[in-house]
Amino acid sequence: EVQLQACGGGLVQPGGSLRLSCAASGFTFGSHDMSWVRQAPGKQRELVATITSGGTTDYPDSVKERFTISRDNIRRTLYLQMNSLKAEDTAVYYCHRPPDSWGPGTQVTVSS
């Protein structure tokens, strides 16, 4: 059974940083592309970072140069380093193994 458990969310002031982690189990983690996806209240889910099995990363313009996705295949863990956070980054962040495996999400709130 695929399990993805994200943690590390919380309340942070604008301009602050957070690092999300996602512990993966039930599949060969190092062989799969992985992503972080977020969903803000009343909005559709938005892809914010992708990393291939080979380590290639991709980001939308909304988070580029602020967010960094990485992976540790030995620890079977996915990370998202988020810097210079803005109020519009407030959302539930999900660890995602395409196409259809999702973790329960972790709340990130950016507010003063």
C-alpha geometry: globular
On the 0-100 scale, what is the average pLDDT? 97
Enumerate how many helices there are, as a single number. 0
The proportion of residues in beta strands is: over 45%
In N-to-C order, the SSE pattern is EEEEEEEEEEE
Helix content: under 10%
Quote the distance from N terminus to C terminus: 40 Å
The main β sheet shows up as: 7 strands, mixed
What structural class is derived from the secondary structure elements? mainly beta
Rg from C-alpha positions? 13 Å
Uncertain segments: none
Tell how many strands the DSSP assignment holds: 11
Short overview:
The protein is an all-beta fold and 112 residues long. The protein has strands spanning 3-7, 10-12, 18-25, 34-39, 46-51, 57-58, 67-72, 77-82, 91-97, 101-102, 106-110. The strands form two sheets. Strands 2, 4, 5, 6, 9, 10 and 11 form a seven-stranded mixed sheet that branches. The protein has a four-stranded antiparallel sheet with strand order 1-3-8-7, with no helix packed on it.
Which structural traits does this protein have?
112 residues; mainly beta; 11 strands; 50% strand; globular
Please provide a written account of the structure.
This protein is 0% helix and 50% strand. The chain is built from no helices and 11 strands. Strands 2, 4, 5, 6, 9, 10 and 11 form a 7-stranded mixed beta sheet that branches. Strands 1-3-8-7 form a 4-stranded antiparallel beta sheet, with no helix packed on it. The termini are far apart. The mean pLDDT is 97.
